[in-house]
Amino acid sequence: MKRLLIGGAAAGLTATALFLGGALRGSPSASSAPVARPPAADSTAAQIAKLQAELRGSSDDVNGLDALGLAYQQRARETGDPTYYTKSDEVLSRALRLAPRDLVATSGLGSLALSRHRFREALALGRRARAISPTTARNYGVIGDALVELGRYRQGFQAFDTMATLRPDVSSYARVGHARLLLGDVAGARSALRLALDASLGQGETEAWTRVQLSKAAFSVGDIAPALAQARAALRAFPGYAPAYDALAWAEYGRGRMHTAIAAEQEAVNRIPLPQYVAMLGDLQGAAGRPAEARRQYALIGVIQRLLVANGVDTDLETALFDVDHGIRLRSSLALARRAQRERPSIDGDDVLAWALARTGHCQEALGYSKSALHLGTRDALKLFHRGAIEQCLGNRAAARGWFRRALALNPRFSVLWAPTARRELR
Amino acid sequence: MHAALPRISKPIVVAAALALGALALVAILTRFPAPGDAKASSHSEAPLISQDPRADNTDLYAFVSPDDTNTVTIIANYIPLEAPASGPNFYSFDDSALYQIGIDRNGDGNADTAYQFRFNTTTRNGNTFLYNTGPISSLSDPNWNRPQTYTVTQVQLNKNGKAKDAVVLGSNIPTPPDNIGPRSTPNYAALATAAVKNLPGGLKVFAGQRDDPFYVDLGSIFDLAGLRPFNPFHLIPLPAAPGVDGLQNYNTHSIVLRVPISQLVQAPSTTVGIYASADRQQKTVLRQDGTKDGHGPWTQVSRLGNPLINEVVIPLGDKDYWNREDPGDDGQFAHYYTTPEVAHLENVLYGAPPQGHAGGALAPIAETGRGDLQQILLTGVPGLNFTGSTPADLLRLNTAIKPGANGACPGGTASPAAPDRMGVLAADLCGFPNGRRLGDDVVDIELRAIAQGYGTFLNGAFGLPNLTPNNLVGDGVDANDVSFSGAFPYVATPHQGYEVP
User: pTM of the entire structure?
Assistant: First the structure.
């Protein structure tokens, strides 16, 4: 049944737009329906149903299992429902038992391990996929993503360079962009992401994902107008896209529109209740003087995280950051942050551990991890702020003020919780 | 996979399914929206399995222009499966990609001259994201908010593929808008005609949206290589049925170029080798000069000479590599042609015993030593369109074979009344694999060639095998859903979003 899709994602479309631009086509589920899709592939759900039916005929069809395993991962991406990870794991593992050197199953399990934050496992799978096909670009994506999350940047960036040599496309451009962001080259990152955008135009979710990255890169340096424009364009490219609502919320917050930001983040949470969306929503509500609502959001996070863990996702780092940020179970969150950093010795792991240490009074030890978190030259205002707090804790007032100033100079609204603190400290 | 097949049926299904590798995954990975990777947290999960439709060269055609037989028309198509109603975004060529048509005149397998196309999209009104804000009545209509123009450059290439002596043949050439509907694009044919331009040297060019001229029963072929007319003989039999064109009502983007034959061939040869490609700029994490993103080297991400090579001949793990390589280096892939996966598949699914099954019908097909396929697809056929011993995936066109006004070859043994969709297999030497016309049924031609059912003409003329009933294999879709134009740019008007939602 075709119908007009008005409201929700299409809210930005005026009546005139509908009149002149043509009505949007949507499948019954507005949140997962890309426009501009051929009818045969309208929804991942339909694709999954078709593949499941075919596999009932021959359950040993490796290619069918491969396709279903990847479709489950796409469905997880669209719905945020981690039970699809478990399903994907089952069918891809079965494919691999039937055909131990199957390329798609091997790299598919690698990308699944990445999604579950099991980066060592992802690295091993990526290398196995590379052994099967050393010229397939995406194998280097799995390897590079894993290495970067494990803090092995030089090797990780080499893998990205190899990937972009084998096949320049949205996947490899996006990784080059991500690496440049880590290195503090925001202009270079945005230029790589613009190439990624050109290579993704018209591809619904992929285009929207790329626009969200452009939005975040702009926001990271306080460039609010393009952050806003890209988030909105992402919603036009893929109506209902939760990450785009999240990016929109950050951009709205960036220009001081708290209530619009809350509404946007609520849209994100309604579609995919990822812990970081729920936390952002609570933070925004708290900052807008609605502490009771904020507490309700925070209470949800534990439940969601348990669901993620039950489906094989390692959430230690995210949980530790949330707990430390919100002053919850500080002592146990330090232990969690230590464990998370061992599993994920990246600048993010180091930063969260540094922050947990600082908030529990271990400021000297925190300093070492903060230095490590900033060693790539990443222009991440939150990490700069954490460093300022650590210097302050160590009694280095001038140094602390310097870091706070740098964080705010990068983006005066880098964090709902901590930008006001940084400003206060500078008064 | 090529080992002797067990006799019990279930493992055979498995073997068949395994053999489907290229086909089924192409369906999943290239022809349809890509499953990506889940995004559960702050870890920045960039897509890993992405399609690249705007740099996906789907088909290449080349034929002596029936209405001007001193010229050849080359058509390179990009962007598969364009849904006509795709607003609010619509389709266009990629401003960041390099589109190219390569010409091999000397038979070394590599392009010695190439026509390069670079596109540029402008926004006429920054205050709206709409494609158009009213009816588009001309190519310069201010209501059209995102017009795209392009530059055509001819380059000479040295042995290493390095471009030199670039000559700009035309710049700021307009493309027509996409065919939206009776309100936005009321007189579409006129818009398309206005986008046909003459270039110096007797060239003519068009670039823009068109009906996808390719026709194939996608739905059945991707269901365990089903061919509906042959359904009763499949390993999993079904009642016979007519084929269904899976690309009916889909559009594509075409680059159409007419070039005088004198600029394409090098005497005494009358045969030209052609391929089309798309390149993207290579990028590295560390910027080369530290400050600016210069132009990274171009890297080929897709190429096409003969139809369906990437889909049917090249295995998944080699696709990225194959697409990067130049045709002149195709010798390294020759074994995929001489031991074709699809020959095995046809035996298993449709063959009579011992290769096939009790309900099968096809005579046993040789699965190895297929020099015939290597010749047709990599070197050309001696006496028809041979270009030398260097194996290269090029579309080879003997320009001395002239069509009549309707595109058919008047001098052959085939009926000159109309072009025969089976081309050379039906003695119509103006068709595939001597070049490729829009109407040529390359799916059936390749299926029969692989099945060694070459037909009586090629059996008599070149001694190629003509097994029966292998010479009847086909997907049952014998023509495009709309008819082609008799005049440049030949490809049919694209389907309108308003009519084909």
Answer: 0.90
